[in-house]
Every structure is written in C-alpha cells, then in structure tokens.
Write a structure and sequence with these properties.
Blueprint lengths: L25 H10 L5 H22 L9 E2 L6 H8 L19 H9 L9 E3 L6 E3 L2 E2 L11 H11 L5 E5 L1 H7 L1 E2 L13 H17 L4 E5 L12 H17 L15 E6 L8 H7 L3 E5 L22 E7 L9 H12 L5 E6 L21 H4 L5 H17 L1 H16 L6 H8 L11 H12 L16 H12 L4 H22 L16 H5 L2 E4 L6 E4 L2 E3 L2 E8 L6 H9 L6 E5 L1 H6 L1 E3 L5 H21 L4 E5 L14 H16 L7 E6 L8 H7 L3 E4 L9 H6 L5 E4 L12 H12 L20 H23 L1
Parallel strand pairs: 1-5, 4-6, 5-7, 7-8, 8-9, 9-10, 10-11, 15-17, 16-18, 18-19, 19-20, 20-21
Antiparallel strand pairs: 2-3, 12-15, 13-14
Helix pairs in contact: 1-2, 7-8, 8-9, 10-12, 12-13, 16-17, 21-22, 22-23, 25-26
The structure holds the ligand CN1c2c(nc(N)[nH]c2=O)NC[C@@H]1CNc1ccc(C(=O)N[C@@H](CCC(=O)N[C@@H](CCC(=O)N[C@@H](CCC(=O)O)C(=O)O)C(=O)O)C(=O)O)cc1, 2-amino-4-mercapto-butyric acid and zinc ion (ZN).
Length: about 800
C-alpha cells in the first residue's frame, strides 16, 4: 500500500475512535463523583487527563504509529456532538448565561447544558444514527451566536505531543453537526439549522487553524449523516452543503501557519461511518479534502462513475477503507476484508489506508478482560474482537496476508470454527421457525379483543399505570454485585428482590394506580437480563459501552440459535400478583429491542434471528397467561433505532421487525391484553409500524414534545389504547397535578377516554423514590380529576 499523499503522510493503519469510558468505567466514576460533589473540578480534570494519557500510550503499545497521526484524539466528557456545539459557543436562549462574553462555555456550563438545572430543561437527547448511543441535540436558530472560542482538542493535541505522539484530533463535521441539530424554539417555520452553514464553517476554519498551530497534521471530521437519506433536508441540498463547507475548509493552505498570518490547517480526513457514502462522495472529491474514510462493512466501495455518467477521479484523494466493523464484535474475516481493500485500491486513489468502519466506542475495550467469565464460553470468546483486538486486525490488514500470515491463518480458523460450532445452528429451533403458519402472526380482530378485555379487566376510564421499572436503588445494585462476587447466595438475593417487589406493590396500591407492575428490581438491564436467561446468548463482565453521558450498558452477545430453557419472568409476576387484587402487568423486552441492544451474529439475516427470539418470548407469554397474568407488556423502545439509514431499506426492515413482535405476542387469547412501550423515538417515522404491531395498548414518550404526536395518531385512525407519557422521567422534576390535567385534557381532544391511558414517559429505574412517589401521586390525582369531570 502506498503511504503518502501530496502533502502529508497518510495514517495508513488507524482506527476512527476508541472507547472513552475507560476499561473499568473510570470516566463514568470520575464524572459521577464530581456531579455528586465528592470531587473538585480540578480532580475531575486530573482523572480525565490520566485516562487520556493511558489511552494514548496503550494505543501506541498496541502498535499504532506515533508519528503519522494514526492515533485518534477523541476524548469526551459527555458526548461528541455536544463537544463541538460547545466549542462553537452554541447554547439555547434559556442557557444564554452559560456563554461568557468571549463565547466560551466552561466545564460546569457544559454539564449544565447536558443535565439541566432547576426548571431549565437540558438539551434533548436522541439516538445516534442506527446505534444505541444517544447524543445531545444542539439547538440552533437564526440568531444563535456561533463563533469559535476554543476547543479542548487543542490541549489534547499538545498532551499527545508531550508523549511523543502526533495525534489526530477527531470532531463531528459541520454538515453532520447541522443535520443533527434542531431548530431553536421560536425559529421561523421554514428555518433549518443548515441555513447557518456559512457561520459554522467560518468557526470550523478557526478551529482547524488552532489545531494546526498546536501541531496537528491531520484532523478527522466525522460526517456519518452523509450515509443517510432520511433527513428533512433533500439529499441534493445536503450535497451542496458538503460542497460549500469543504470547499471553504479545504481552500486554506495545508501545513504550518505562514508568516503573513494566513490560517493554515491540518490535512482533512472526512469519515462516513454507518453506511454507504453513495453520491455524497462527489462533492467531497470536488472540494479537495485530502482523505476520505469509507465504511466498507455496511457500505459499498464507490462506483467508478458519478450519477451523471462521468468518470470519478480519485487520483487527488487518499481513500481509507473501513473494513473492520466498529459496531459489532465478531473477529474480522481478514481474507474478505483484504479483498474489499483491493477493490478500493483499484479506484486509483492517491493513497490507500485501512481502518475501522466507525469509531470503536460502540464496543468494549478488550476481550482479554473476560478471561474466566463463566457466562462467556471460551469458544465464543475466541470469535470476538473488541476494540484492542480490532486494532490488531487493522494492523494485520495493513501488513497484508504475507506480512501477517499467522494472523490471517488464525482468522480463517475462526471463520471455520464459528460456522461448525455446536449451538450455532440447532435443528429444533430451526425447524420450529421454518414451519410457522401465517396464523402464528395474527390475533383476533381488535374489536373482539377490546370487548373481551373490557369485560374481564373492568378498568376505569383513563386507567393509570407505569412503564415497568421502579427506582434501581444502590441497595439493589449492590445486592447484585454481591451475588456476582459470591458474598450473597442465590436464596438471599432472591429474598431481597422479593422484598423489593412487595414494597413496590404496596406503594402502588397506596398511590392508587390501576394496573400495577412488579418493578423489575431483579433486572440489571432490560436486555441483558433476558440474554442471561436464554440459550444462544453470552454476557460480559466488563464489556461496558457508553449509551449516553456517563450511562453505560453491557450489550449481550447473541452468538447461536436462541431458545428459552425455562420460564424467566413468571415467578416474579405471579409473586407480585399474589400480593394484590389489582391487575399486575407482566413485563418483557421485545425481539427487536433485544437484537438492537445486543451484539448480534452476522452470519444470517436479522429477521431470522428476531423470529427465534420471538418464539422464545412467545413461550414466556404463554406461561404468563397460563399463570393468570392478564396484561402483558412487550417493550420495543428500539423499534425506531434499527430503522435503516436509507429509505429504500425501510420496508424490508419494518416487515421483519413488526412480524417478529407479532410472532411473540399473537399466541394469547382474546382476553389477554398486550401492551407495548416505545421511547427515544420520532414516532412519526415508524407510526405505520406501531400500528402494525397490533398491540392492545401502546405507551409512548410524549411529555417532552407536549403530546404533539396525538393529532396525527387520531387522524391516522389509530383506535387501540394509547398512553402518551405525561411526564418526563429523564428529569428529576416533579410534574404538578395541574400540568398533568392540562396534558390529559389536551390529549382528550384527539383520543377518546376509553382509549387514553395515563402513565409516565418511560421506566423509573434511573429516578429516586422521593421524586417518583411525588410524581405518581400527582399523576393519579390528575387522572382522577379528569375522570371525574368526564362523568360529571
Ligand atoms: C432505556 N435505555 C436502555 C438502552 N439500552 C439498554 N441496554 N438498556 C436500557 O435500559 N438504551 C436506551 C435507553 C437509555 N440508555 C440507558 C443506558 C444505561 C442506563 C443505566 O442506567 N446504566 C447503568 C448500568 C445499569 C446496569 O447494568 N446495572 C447493573 C450493574 C450496576 C453496577 O454498575 N454495579 C456496580 C456495583 C454496584 C453499586 O455499588 O452500585 C459495579 O458493578 O461496579 C446492575 O444493576 O446489576 C449505569 O450505571 O450506567 C440507563 C439508560
Ligand atoms: N419496562 C422498561 C422499559 C424501558 S424503555 C422500564 O420500565 O424500564
Ligand atoms: Zn422507555
């Protein structure tokens, strides 16, 4: 592989980013200690600097080159989108005081924007592309101040230099920043944040110049939004924004700041992870950026011809092939990856390099940390590559099949071993999934179900309920940690959880809720818990990945055919039910969400795997029903998350995802009421699918949007039960009774009282008991008030 461009040595073997949370969640712990007031800001800064130093030296020790900008500088205290918005001094009006006169926002302000303060709501959080990471949405209006006032990356370039490392600062690119932003409150209807492109690009130019002065030879600008065509902005307008933005940025001279003070810049590497760059490659080629990194795992090698039929000229750009999956954990088939790199090489680029398809922050640090994990069979561990192992794969691919013959041979052995391993394909599971009749996916007509359920359940108008989890107290988490450590035995653990269920049931009775839940105290996570109880999954001990801010999950590993060896939730639901005469809602996580929040086998289609999970859940639902649980909720918060980034792929996705939910839930009788719950979504986009799920009751996140979706729901003729969340569980704020009453009265203008349910936005696991109790008291009082006025 050629190693140079006209100006700079290209990072020929690199990664697009590395986990930021630390191998033992050091950053999470440092940040949360600071928030809790246990450490000063200086102590936090010191802990973060130490983590960055360890990361840099670790990447160097793994073999990434220190001189050629191969090592990314991508630290973040909270979120990478927020980092850039803050560097540009972007704050919503309600937080204007956090921006100093010179445009800077200090660390305390950075956290306040992320977490809110008193009545000032934080920035909205939404899912990042098709992943389980959530970013903070910048709010940009026509008058929002935008200027470069300083970036932490500049200091990080210097820190790296002190270690003898020429690091490559990583930033979200200007077009993606604006496509991910939302119009600030009060913006004219026809305003789009992309209208502020010129101001943003001017600020980026200053930022790039600053990075260059600090010694950066390359800068990485992440433009994953270019792999999607689902933005409100038409693709042609996005392409012209790319041309304009990079035309300006690339027009500055590359290299050292010249004597007359012209702003020089580092060479620009634009990345486009999460899918195909498609025709967005043309404006980048025309703009003259020095390098483009392509996702060759989910995306394609660019065609040699542009849509207008003209031959594409790659001779002035370096192309970096993202052939190592940054978003999943399977060891790379190196022969296949090398083949893709060859295809890329055939385009005639000025230079080529090898990298990951996305940043590695979606995967845990290292498989080595799982040594001795009884929940991860050694055979399966051998098939995995987490971040460190992926660095090794990138280096092997850069060395090539001759240079790294042993690594290539090991990769071939893994491919063969995985295909033939016991448990990967199990006859019984496959026969059952293959022979499903159409009737396995359908229930009786809703009218029939509704009548039967009304008769059996006898619920009041506007029934009140919660979404499932009650606060996961430190005590509960500690009990689980002690169980893992062996200092608490199974029986004592189960007893502690049963005691919590009893407390939660008593509390709900006291509050006067109509449909109760057991509270999910026994669940470490709504996906991992099921994975731990299903065959075909493995779980990690230390495989934490960031989900948002300081919050992490340990995605499970779905490696083989899935089945349910024994009932999972039935004992908890029946125990809870035995404590009350009120109905108790069974609580399961749906097949799509189980897949979305796990690392899923890549040797078959997702739809096939989803149906296996669905059949396991169908068995669980049958057992719950047989045990007398008449209401069963199957959560699908990730239904929107997996929606493909290209519109052309939506239909096929919605077909299999909806079918798997229906397969899980269609085995019940007419009187059993199936609920579902969705959150973190722009529901408009998946409304047809929500309807297609055919659940009797659907609860959705709606409080933050003041229930804007309801008129559309009504207009679409949605006739089944709906529970638009009446308060935001992401904030500690307690809603007043009046406020909930107002929301409910508003909702009743779109939805009839027979179909309107009253519930919070989402589960209460991240909240405390005090605020939960006060909020639910107001929720129940509000429902009663509105109910009373209906009768009167
Ligand atoms: C609803 N969401 C979820 C998503 N993905 C999931 N897989 N799960 C979700 O619930 N995606 C979208 C949203 C938003 N995302 C999140 C993600 C993570 C959290 C969260 O609160 N995470 C917790 C960790 C939860 C957990 O796994 N708990 C375990 C282990 C707890 C632990 O750290 N134990 C300590 C010791 C105990 C102690 O002293 O406290 C240890 O092991 O060191 C458990 O309960 O057993 C987090 O803290 O980040 C929320 C929303
Ligand atoms: N039943 C889950 C859904 C979260 S999306 C909970 O209440 O936490
Ligand atoms: Zn939820």
């Amino acid at each position: 592989m050629s190693a140079t461009t006209q100006h700079h040595e290209l990072p020929t073997a690199t990664i697009l980013g590395y986990p930021r949370i630390g191998p033992r969640r050091e950053l999470k712990k440092a940040v949360e200690s600071h928030w809790a007031g246990r450490t000063t800001e200086a102590e936090l800064e010191q802990a973060a600097a130490e983590l960055r130093r360890r990361t840099l030296t670790h990447l160097r020790d793994l073999g990434l080159a220190v001189e050629d900008s191969s090592i990314p500088l991508d630290f973040s205290y909270y979120d990478q989108v927020h980092d850039v918005a803050v560097a540009l001094g972007v704050v919503p009006e309600r937080f204007a005081d956090l921006r100093a006169a010179d445009g800077t926002i200090d660390l305390a302000g950075y956290f306040t924007l992320a977490r809110g303060e008193g009545d000032r709501v934080p920035l909205e959080m939404t899912k990042w592309l098709d992943s389980n990471y959530h970013y903070l949405v910048p709010e940009i209006g026509p008058a929002t101040a935008i200027s470069y006032a300083g970036s932490r990356r500049v200091q990080e370039v210097r820190e790296a230099a002190d270690l003898g490392i020429t690091g490559r600062p990583v930033l979200i690119g200007p077009v993606t920043l604006l496509l991910l932003a939302k119009a600030a409150d009060g913006s004219p209807e026809d305003f789009s944040p992309l209208d502020r492109l010129d101001d943003v690009v001017a600020a980026y130019a200053a930022l790039l110049a600053d990075l260059r002065s600090a010694g950066a030879s390359w800068v990485q600008l992440d433009e994953p939004a270019l792999t999607s065509d689902t933005w409100a902005t038409p693709t042609a307008e996005v392409a012209s924004a790319v041309a304009r933005a990079y035309g300006v940025l690339a027009s500055a001279p590359v290299g050292a700041a010249s004597d007359d003070g012209d702003a020089a810049r580092p060479a620009i590497l634009v990345t486009a992870g999460y899918g195909s760059l498609g025709d967005a490659v043309d404006p980048l080629l025309a703009a003259g950026v020095e390098a483009i990194a392509l996702d060759l795992v989910k995306g394609a090698v660019p065609a040699t011809r542009a849509p207008d039929g003209g031959a594409r000229d790659f001779s002035h750009v370096a192309l970096v092939g993202g052939v190592v999956d940054g978003h999943n954990v399977w060891r790379t088939d190196l022969d296949r990856a090398a083949g893709r790199l060859e295809e890329l090489g055939a385009l005639g680029a000025a230079a080529t390099g090898v990298t990951t398809s996305t940043s590695l922050f979606h995967v845990p640090h290292t498989v080595a940390d799982e040594a001795g994990n009884p929940e991860l069979p050694a055979a399966v561990a051998g098939w995995l590559a987490f971040a460190d192992e992926k660095v090794g794969e990138v280096l092997a691919l850069a060395a090539g099949p001759d240079g790294a013959a042993e690594v290539f041979a090991a990769s071939r052995a893994v491919v063969a071993d995985r295909a033939a391993a016991p448990g990967v394909r199990r006859g019984q599971v496959r026969e059952r999934a293959a022979g499903l009749p159409a009737s396995a996916f359908t229930r009786e007509a809703y009218a029939e179900r509704q009548a039967a359920q009304d008769a059996v359940l006898d619920l009041p108008a506007l029934p009140t309920t919660t979404i499932g989890s009650f606060p996961q107290t430190g005590e509960l988490r500690r009990a689980r940690a002690e169980l893992r450590a062996g200092t608490l035995d199974e029986a004592a653990y189960a007893e502690a959880m049963r005691a919590e269920v009893a407390r939660v049931i008593a509390l709900q009775e006291e509050l006067g809720l109509d449909v109760l839940v057991h509270g999910e105290p026994e669940r470490n996570d709504m996906v991992q818990y099921f994975a731990e109880n299903l065959d075909g999954f493995a779980v990690t001990q230390h495989g934490w990945v960031q989900s948002y801010g300081s919050r992490c999950t340990r995605p499970s590993i779905l490696w083989g055919d899935v089945s349910r060896p024994a009932p999972i939730t039935v004992p908890w639901a029946t125990y809870a039910s035995s404590l009350t005469s009120a109905p108790v809602k069974g609580m399961l996580t749906g097949p799509v969400t189980i897949l979305a929040w796990s690392f899923v086998r890549d040797d078959q289609g997702l739809g096939e795997t989803a149906n296996q999970v669905a059949l396991a859940l169908r068995d669980e639902i049958a057992d719950l029903e047989a045990a007398g649980i008449g209401i069963i909720q199957v959560d699908e918060p990730a239904l929107r998350e997996l929606l493909p980034l290209r519109r052309a792929d939506h239909e096929a996705y919605l077909d299999w995802s909806v079918a798997s939910f229906r397969l899980a839930t269609s085995g019940v009788g007419v009187t059993t009421q199936i609920h579902t719950h969705l959150c973190y979504s722009e529901f408009e986009e998946v409304f047809g699918a929500i309807d297609g799920l055919d659940a009797d009751v659907t609860s959705i996140e709606a409080a933050r949007s003041r229930m804007e979706i309801l008129p559309a729901v009504a207009e679409a003729g949605f006739e089944r039960g709906i529970g638009p969340g009446v308060y935001d569980i992401h904030s500690p704020r307690v809603p007043s009774q009046e406020e909930v009453v107002e929301l409910l009265r508003g909702a009743l203008t779109s939805v009839g009282p027979r179909t309107l349910w009253v519930n919070p936005d989402c589960g209460l696991k991240t909240r405390g008991y005090d605020e939960t109790t006060r909020s639910l008291t107001n929720l129940v009082a509000a429902a009663r008030e509105v109910r009373g006025s209906l009768v009167g």
